[in-house]
Design goal:
Layout: H1 2-15, H2 26-29, E1 30-31, E2 57-64, E3 70-76, H3 101-112, E4 114-122, E5 126-132, E6 139-144, E7 156-159, E8 162-173, E9 195-199, H4 205-245, E10 253-257
């Protein structure tokens, strides 16, 4: 059984060539419209000192926090803001109807142009990608001979004049480091630029098309993407270093709650004096 699956995977890899059959240059057919500029890290402005309003306080409750500080809630004098407007009546329930062919086509277009991917990337060379076909809800997995992590943070891209959005969650692994679970044996079975479908229906070209498009995108924009990821990494390292040098300082916190229209505290400013517990 395993031998048959391997033959099927290898045959499928041969049907997905490294370069598309379209003779149009990949850079003109598939590209990222964004400039991919990453600003230098700028430390955030200091947190302004908190100032409490100068109002009458009718009740106070202070609780200790786990960090050694305190949390205080104060009930102040009634709010002077205008009453909240009366909410509008609910809209009548619309009679359910079937979608028109045009609406169904639009929904399918949007569904197929939002790419949600999960991946494990090994040595920035091989990616094991997971996704779900939005039409059939079938789970797919593929071993790809390229670094799909280059697409992290790009947002959108254009392919054949159509805009796609991509949401990628991935992890990077260095196979030179020891792992208690080891690394997948299939990593050595894929060639650069090759796509091997290991889970899902390999005959469903609509479901597998996103990876071929992504491969074209990485081929066309690899130089820009490499610089973009290097800039993102530099920015993240600078932010992490600053946060390590400036950890948040615990402090006592006070929040003031002011009764508004409908509050029981408007009629009884100090109900606790009548044996009622303040909360």
């Amino acid at each position: 059984m395993k031998r048959t699956s391997l033959l099927l995977v290898t045959a499928l890899g041969a049907t997905l060539p490294v370069f598309s059959q379209d003779k149009t240059p990949a850079s003109a057919r598939t590209y990222i419209p964004d400039t991919l500029a990453v600003p230098a890290f700028t430390p955030p402005a200091p947190v302004a000192a908190k100032r409490l309003p100068n109002i009458r306080v009718d009740a106070t409750c202070t609780l200790p926090s786990s960090n050694g500080k305190t949390l205080t809630l104060q009930r102040g004098q009634a709010s002077t803001l205008p009453d909240l407007p009366t909410p509008p009546p609910p809209e009548p329930i619309k009679q359910a109807r079937d979608f028109t062919p045009v609406e169904l086509a639009r929904i399918a277009y949007q569904r197929r142009h939002n790419l949600n991917l999960g991946a494990s990337v090994y040595d920035h060379k091989v990616s094991i990608v997971h996704w779900t076909d939005p039409d059939t809800a079938t789970s797919y997995e593929a071993i790809c001979g390229f670094d799909i992590g280059l697409l992290a943070g790009i947002g959108t891209f254009v392919h054949q004049k159509e805009t796609y959005s991509v949401f990628l969650v991935h992890s990077d692994y260095d196979t030179t480091r020891k792992s208690r679970f080891g690394y997948p044996a299939q990593l050595t079975k894929v060639q650069p630029g090759q796509i091997l479908i290991t889970t899902g229906d390999p005959k469903n070209t609509i479901a597998t098309a996103p990876l071929a498009i992504i491969r074209d995108l990485i081929t066309a924009e690899k130089e820009r993407l490499t610089k973009f990821q290097a800039a993102r990494f530099k920015h993240q390292q600078a932010a992490a270093a600053w946060e390590a040098e400036h950890p948040p300082i615990p402090r006592d916190e006070t929040f003031v709650l002011r009764p508004h229209r409908g509050s029981r505290y408007l009629a009884e400013p100090q109900p606790e004096k009548k044996g009622e517990t303040t909360r």
